Design the sequence.
């Protein structure tokens, strides 16, 4: 397959005129004619040509990202049955896609990191030897686009031309992916124009793996959701390349997201001295008009979108959304750590999103949305579990079958999704388009923990903050694989997304201390909205009330809120967390911060065992924090 594209650090940021989209028939050998094409970048052209030769599409279309192109593609998908247009009076400009039942989520077991040395991928990744994987991929991609159109999708992660933005080109045979990439990234002519000769870009090849013509010329009918039982989501972090085969769904197929912005970008970030993180990003304004920027990492099913679109219950506080999933954080020229959301849209989980849990998201979903695997109402609208308290009397479920409330099946798939432009979000901050991002004041690490982890704790310094990130864990919910309640370690919420050895990743986080001025380093907090009392009740109301925790964090940042010291970090001093009007029993508040030394000592043993898998690459400082915690707990410092 194609070797890595050479990287030239000099970037021409001269604005380029938009270029028209180009369409071409491929020649007999699948070789596109190159005249009249929208780029003269030889690296892009030869890679496109090589990929077309291998995959043998009927035609190659260069995407310009225009509304006209989006309209053409959605009309095409309505004709092919991939999209169902929704009732324009209920959900203007919106569509429903139903995936194949076996193509509904990221496939971690088929996600590969191909580094020359196995130990560089580490124990948390599926490692493959690069040349062997290239051979295997060449085999599956050969002829995989026969009878189809190959789309060339240039995109920018971050504002086009921004100092922290990065460019990519995805080749795909899925019009659903093209339409989704237009929403999720800055896609089209401006991005292509920015890829001037010598400008680095990440090449990403994607095929659903369902050719319409076989090697001896026999045709078959297309299906609404083409895919293949055999799947690959393959990353080559050393040459910064991505190949995805067999799936049309979400993180497997929209390659700007998890593949580029996390797995490949985390490896780039390590080499270049920045951080590519699985974090939401918000701007918080206090009643006194002080502005704070918070980044927060949560494993799945911990209310990440709810915090990204928080509507504070505390009077005078305002939260604006910059990102809901990924933050790239760079040491800025001002000595601060500056963060941007590299995406331009949201690919959020629909089930559980409702007017009572996330009204901002519900407003965001009023128009111009592609829904995938939700249920269809009889009047052409969408529904999913948690949208309303009462389900409709009849629906068509995510697989197109009749559904009634008593049928015993969910109407929407638990991983049903919406794809919508960030511009549709009522709480979107104008800073989403700030090319140099925003200064980060605090980083939060969350998890779903019934016991042990307090509602909020503040790290004493960067090292303890990194330890907090390294020890993130969450109890499994019914929607996740594995036994319900079982603890899953998910360091920095990056377990499936770190493109290299996790021990080196911890060390890289520690090294940020040497790259950012001490005064410019964010403070670090752990939060847990899910603590339960002895009787099994959730102790904290969550949702908009989480603004009380956000308030305490912001008051700590400005130096006006009190704290008391514990072995886990600083927690709010008595009376420092605003609980007015909450009607929380004193006992519940005490339990939210209770520290049981015996239970924690058992957790320390468990963490020691978990960290052992990182071997010699586990930084001594992490081991040191574990030892310090053990000492403080056994020395009776538990307060
Ligand atoms: O299942 C998928 O393909 C989507 S996974 C996803 C999508 C949006 C945001 N986060 C995630 C995730 O798995 O963290
Ligand atoms: Mn995510």
Sequence:
């Amino acid at each position: 397959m194609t070797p890595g594209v050479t990287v030239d650090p000099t970037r021409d940021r001269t604005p380029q005129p938009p270029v028209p989209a180009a369409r071409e028939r491929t020649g007999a050998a699948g070789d596109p004619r190159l005249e009249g094409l929208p780029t003269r970048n030889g690296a892009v052209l030869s890679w496109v040509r090589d990929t077309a030769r291998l995959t043998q599409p009927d035609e190659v279309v260069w995407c310009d990202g225009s509304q006209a192109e989006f309209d053409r593609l959605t009309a095409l998908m309505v004709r092919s049955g991939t999209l169902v247009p929704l009732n324009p009076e209920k959900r203007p400009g919106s569509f429903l896609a139903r995936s194949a039942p076996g193509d509904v989520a990221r496939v971690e077991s088929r996600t590969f990191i191909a580094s020359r040395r196995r130990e560089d991928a580490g124990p948390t990744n599926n490692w493959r030897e690069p040349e062997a994987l290239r051979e295997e991929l060449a085999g599956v991609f050969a002829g995989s686009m026969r009878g189809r159109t190959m789309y060339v999708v240039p995109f920018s992660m971050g504002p086009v031309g921004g100092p922290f933005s990065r460019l990519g080109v995805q080749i795909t045979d899925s019009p659903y992916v093209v339409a989704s990439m237009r929403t999720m990234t800055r896609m089209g002519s401006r991005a292509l124009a920015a890829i001037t000769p010598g400008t680095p870009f990440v090449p990403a090849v994607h095929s659903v793996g369902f050719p319409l013509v076989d090697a001896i010329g026999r045709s078959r009918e297309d299906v609404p959701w083409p895919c293949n039982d055999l799947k690959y989501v393959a990353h080559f972090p050393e040459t910064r390349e991505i190949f995805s085969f067999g799936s049309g769904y979400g993180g497997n197929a929209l390659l700007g997201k998890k593949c580029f912005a996390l797995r490949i970008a985390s490896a780039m970030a390590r080499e270049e001295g920045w951080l590519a993180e699985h974090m939401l990003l918000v701007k918080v304004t206090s009643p006194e008009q002080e502005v704070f920027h918070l980044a927060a990492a949560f494993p799945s099913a911990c209310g990440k979108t709810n915090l990204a679109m928080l509507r504070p219950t505390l009077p005078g506080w305002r939260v604006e959304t910059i990102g809901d999933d990924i933050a790239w954080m760079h040491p800025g020229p001002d000595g601060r750590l500056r963060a941007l959301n590299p995406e331009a849209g949201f690919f959020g989980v629909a089930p559980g999103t409702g007017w009572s849990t996330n009204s901002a998201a519900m407003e965001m979903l009023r128009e111009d949305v592609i829904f995938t695997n939700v249920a269809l109402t009889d009047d052409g609208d969408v529904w999913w579990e948690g949208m309303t308290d009462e389900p409709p009397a009849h629906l068509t479920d995510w697989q197109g079958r009749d559904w009634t409330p008593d049928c015993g099946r969910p109407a929407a798939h638990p991983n049903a999704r919406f794809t919508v432009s960030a511009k549709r979000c009522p709480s979107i901050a104008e800073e989403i388009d700030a090319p140099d991002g925003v200064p980060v004041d605090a980083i939060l690490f969350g998890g779903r923990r019934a016991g042990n982890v307090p509602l909020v704790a503040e790290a004493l310094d960067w090292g303890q903050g990194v330890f907090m990130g390294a020890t993130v864990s969450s109890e499994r919910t019914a929607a996740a694989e594995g036994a319900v309640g079982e603890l899953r370690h998910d360091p920095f919420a990056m377990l499936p997304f770190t493109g290299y050895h996790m021990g080196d990743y911890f060390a890289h986080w520690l090294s940020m201390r040497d790259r950012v001025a001490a005064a410019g380093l964010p403070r670090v907090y752990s939060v847990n909205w899910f603590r339960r009392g002895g009787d099994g009740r959730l102790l904290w109301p969550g949702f908009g009330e989480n603004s009380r925790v956000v308030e305490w964090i912001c008051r700590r940042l400005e130096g006006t809120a009190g704290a008391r010291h514990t072995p886990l970090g600083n927690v709010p001093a008595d009376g420092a967390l605003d609980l007015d009007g909450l009607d929380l029993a004193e006992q519940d508040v005490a339990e939210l911060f209770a520290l049981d030394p015996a239970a924690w000592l058992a957790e320390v043993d468990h963490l020691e065992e978990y960290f052992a898998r990182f071997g010699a690459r586990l930084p001594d400082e992490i081991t040191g924090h574990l030892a310090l915690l053990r000492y403080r707990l056994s020395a009776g410092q538990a307060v």
About this structure: Residues 278, 325 surround manganese (II) ion (ligand 2) (CB under 6 Å). The chain is about 25% helix and 20% strand. Residues 1-22 have pLDDT under 50 and may be disordered. The two ends are 59 Å apart (CA to CA).
